[in-house]
Design goal:
alpha+beta
């Protein structure tokens, strides 16, 4: 497969949406949800040539884990995870569950044990929204795909040598 130029990539991204969804019902599925996120981002990079930094890969998996865990813990029935790249710059992570009750968003409290999931999601995301649906609700956040154009991306070597390893 030939590498796309920046202009070709921008033209492709204007009309295309890359997405994947999965339904999860048990707590053991939380690891499967993280795997789905990792696989999706690996494909976004390998197939479409979009940069995905190692930090972003870990951050998206963390967000997926927190949102799916909350859905499994606080809502009856399955939840639906959707990951979508529609602008080439960020991945939208969306989790639907059957409970119409919006999540309790607690103020940061370093002395509190547990219940920091949404606090983490809101801290690492570019956006955060809770949408009521005809059945249940959907929580959505967006995470930028690349930190810095010169930074290492998963599966690629840096173009700049590390100062300690010339």
């Amino acid at each position: 497969m030939e590498k796309m130029t920046g202009a070709e990539r921008r033209r492709l991204l204007r009309g295309d949406v890359f997405s994947v969804s999965g339904a999860f019902e048990g707590s053991e599925d939380i690891a499967v949800a993280r795997d789905l996120a990792r696989s999706f981002l690996t494909d976004v990079q390998a197939v479409y040539g979009l940069p995905v930094s190692g930090r972003v890969m870990g951050t998206v998996q963390l967000v997926v884990s927190e949102l799916v865990t909350n859905a499994r813990k606080y809502a009856p029935g399955p939840c639906l995870l959707t990951l979508e790249v529609n602008d080439g710059a960020s991945v939208e992570v969306s989790v639907w569950d059957s409970s119409p009750t919006p999540p309790a968003i607690l103020a940061p409290d370093p002395t509190r044990i547990g219940q920091h999931g949404l606090e983490i999601v809101m801290a690492v995301g570019q956006s955060f929204a809770v949408h009521r649906e005809p059945v249940g609700k959907r929580i959505t956040t967006a995470i930028g795909l690349a930190d810095d154009p010169g930074e290492d991306t998963v599966g690629h070597q840096s173009r700049q040598p590390h100062p300690d390893h010339p």
